Amino acid sequence: MIRIGVLxxxxxxxxxxxxxxxxxxxxxxxxxxxxxxVAGAYALKRAENNSIPTKIFLHQEYxxxxxxDSRIAQTLEEYKVDLVALAGFMRVLxxxxxxxxxxxxxxxxxxxxxxxxxxxxxxxxIDHGVRFSGCTVHFVDSGVDxxxxxxxxxxxxxxxxxxEELKDRIIALEHQIYPRAIQLFAQGxxxxxxxxxxxxxxxxxxxxxxVNPPLDS
Amino acid sequence: MIRIGVLxxxxxxxxxxxxxxxxxxxxxxxxxxxxxxVAGAYALKRAENNSIPTKIFLHQEYxxxxxxDSRIAQTLEEYKVDLVALAGFMRVLxxxxxxxxxxxxxxxxxxxxxxxxxxxxxxxxIDHGVRFSGCTVHFVDSGVDxxxxxxxxxxxxxxxxxxEELKDRIIALEHQIYPRAIQLFAQGxxxxxxxxxxxxxxxxxxxxxxVNPPLDS
Lengths: 217, 217
Known about the structure:
Two copies of one chain form a homodimer.
Chain A: E1 2-8, H1 13-24, E2 29-36, H2 42-49, E3 54-56, H3 65-78, E4 83-87, H4 95-100, E5 105-109, H5 121-128, E6 132-139, E7 149-156, H6 163-186, E8 190-193, E9 196-199, E10 210-212
Parallel strand pairs in A: 1-2, 1-4, 2-3, 4-5
Antiparallel strand pairs in A: 5-6, 6-7, 8-9
């Protein structure tokens, strides 16, 4: 059973999916602490509803990123977490923080990386006219959305999609792949080699293909 | 019935898929001429086998890109082509060429653009550790692999894939989506608006989703 620390800034729907998966037994672990850098984040309420300890550290109150990150790292160590999961956490972590949790910090991003890193990426995908986007769970490195990829999901994009429509489509998959990635970590099924993440017992399935617009429309 | 000019530099397997689709009636059109910038390209043999006129223009023999492109454009106009399809054509076309065939030049690229533009992209996708790649048919603009996207296909990528394995997986889809994109063009089903390509009568299908590694592996 792994202990998971979740960092949040907002509504925490991915936190909810992780807590639910732990409750269902789909993750061999539990959320040990939820840390927010925003005082009124709804994610805190979700954690309290699940009787999970919460901490609030306001980045504005720290003189620099190092001291802010250090305070978070200290708390995560106090709660003896095995894995740090970012769930809508809107701060970039320092290399010093990452060094304290080597290959143990993961994030979810609402695009098919390496396409569309950064912010506002659902609208960017629509505006670019892509036929597919998706979401990516990856280990965090010192870049922005650049770390080794654990799992990805693909969803279709349509030229007249609104950002809300595409967000709904992507988030439904986020709530499936983030718990799945955490369970693969909990099972020790992930092996990082450079940029690649090998998955134990992964069977190649060449039929995992999609076309948009479909071939027979 | 549209008349298609195909530009090639190599083996021409996409040319073959286009000729075959025309023969089957899956494309309302015919290949009117095949132009190569490489004298021994196997694509020329494929065209001859289908009794399609071929032309060879060696770019080395022209003083600049403009004169080379102008010679090709002149030939395409002589053959009264409605659409110019690049099929492994290894030269970047000048804006002057594209201006002579506005919104009538298309290309196929072996990656899920905007990820991995340029060359050597299958190995780049493997090295990056992505879970999905694919192929893209797009209108050509003056950038490299940047034009409005018509159709995309997704294929899985595995960490131990060889470039050949991934190439085989992608090319099987290329041979399906390139003829399909040409038929959408032939039917007048494509409408370009900025970067977006709208497809007539396209039905949104939110179930067009994939996850890799799969959720239940």
